[in-house]
Amino acid sequence: MNNIDKLVWNEDLIRRYDLSGPRYTSYPTAVQFDGEFGAKDCVSAADMCRNSDAPLSLYVHIPFCAHVCYYCACNKVITKHRDRAQPYLDRLYKDIKMQSDLFSENRIVEQLHWGGGTPTFIADEQMRELMSELRKNFKLLDDDSGDYSIEIDPREASEETLKTLREIGFNRISLGVQDFNPKVQKAVNRVQSEEETRFVLDTGRALGFKSINLDLIYGLPFQTPETFAETVQRVLDMSPDRLSVFNYAHMPHRFMPQRRINEEDLPTPDQKLVILHETIETLLNAGYVYIGMDHFAKPDDELAIAQKHGKLHRNFQGYTTHSDCDLISMGVSSISQVGQCYYQNHHDLEEYNQAIDDNLLPVKRGVWLTDDDLIRKDAIMQLICHFSLDMNAFEKQHNLVFAEYFKDEMSRLSQYVTDKLINIEGDTIYVQPGGRLLIRAICKVFDKYIPAEEIQKGYSRII
After folding, report:
1. Which of 29, 168, 207, 440 has the highest CB neighbour count under 10 A?
2. What is the pTM of this model?
3. CA 38, 44, 48, 49 torsion: positive or negative?
4. Digits of tens for pLDDT over the chain (463 positions)?
5. Backbone phi, psi, residue 431, to 5°
6. 244 φ, ψ to 5°?
7. What family name appears in the similarity comment (predicted)?
8. Cis link prior to 117 (omega < 30° from 0)?
């Protein structure tokens, strides 16, 4: 049996499999979303689950940032003009109303997340107003039992703002740190002191936020194994409940702000491998559990507990414990998952605004999942969340013979067995400790949209 806490670092296999592939926050991935999918499809999807009493997950996108971080690849609008927020919020409220009209009033919102951009760009009173609109249109919990989180920029989070967030119902916060080294911060235009971060952490804990997540990025300009190790140690001193350690993918041809980063200042691929290896070892030795991909959590965290009991799930908000929720997302570029479809709002703010002004759901594209998609999605999600797949239980759930349905895939997996990335014992596929960092490559085997000859290429590397 696998021990979820264990990882084995095998540099030869890491280099060979290259750690490339989709992040599988969905299957099919967003690459398969079709522009023919429109508002009528959203209505049809909602109608199919109108009688459902399953809980909901809500996502709200606030695109504004006061400062540009050169590494960022998010959908954002950089502006110093705070007055741009209210016209967007007014349209967002219409978006919220149109979405809520599609669903039963009895469905409880178990999970809520505000992302961006920088959600704390908007004023405290606007935060109260936005949460009020959500409560008016959806059945939010008022007993602090929900999983209600928000992304925070510590540079824009006063004590009063944190109090406001707690009062309106948030109980989880996620902070971007990236790196504490001043030279690195200057190079990516994200100057943020350790004191600012500690203030939000300490204040958040005093106010009763039950979970705090910190984000780090490795692969930024001027980082070395030694300097990043210093950042990791300072972060561990803060003892966050969860940690995300993301790879910086330098793609200036796609993301204009990254053109301000000098490529010659980036750590080499070899240095990045050392940084990742040492960071993983440090976090595991400090008692954190490797959840998967870039994520770590304390053993008593809900994610670690859910993984231990086979109840972890993955969606556009990352790893989650809310597997039975339809995800309804509102705001520019946000992605929803309702029933057997995914759909995404307009990326372009003007197009989003125009759709709202025309009283239309601002849907840009989407995809209906076929029966085959649902089967493959289940296989991929079991592997990426739990590092195992019970083929016998899978056969009963989907009424198929696993070895026949996935004949080609099982053949390709034989090499992964040889390389000790996976092990097949009886009716169960186990991802070995040496394969957990390569889980994206393993999941790609079950992805019918990626040709077999491209199993190990075609996507950006994560190292």
Report:
1. 440
2. 0.93
3. positive
4. 344 457 888 888 888 887 668 889 999 999 999 999 999 999 999 999 888 889 999 999 999 999 999 999 888 999 999 999 999 999 999 999 999 999 988 899 999 999 999 999 999 999 999 999 999 999 999 999 999 999 999 998 999 999 999 999 999 999 999 999 999 999 999 999 999 999 999 999 999 999 999 999 999 999 999 999 999 999 999 999 999 999 998 999 989 999 999 999 999 989 999 999 999 999 999 999 999 888 999 999 999 999 999 899 998 888 988 877 899 999 999 999 999 999 999 999 999 999 999 999 999 999 999 999 999 999 999 999 999 999 999 999 999 999 999 999 999 999 999 999 999 999 999 999 999 999 999 999 999 998 765 554 445 565 5
5. -85, 120
6. -115, 130
7. Belongs to the anaerobic coproporphyrinogen-III oxidase family.
8. yes
Residue in the block written with tokens 């804990």: 205
User: Would you call 284 exposed, middle or buried from its count of C-beta atoms within 10 A (0-12, 13-18, 19+)?
Assistant: middle
User: Which neighbouring-strand residues pair with 330?
Assistant: 60
Q: Where are the alpha helices (DSSP H) in 332-444?
A: 349-357, 371-386, 391-398, 402-405, 407-418, 439-444
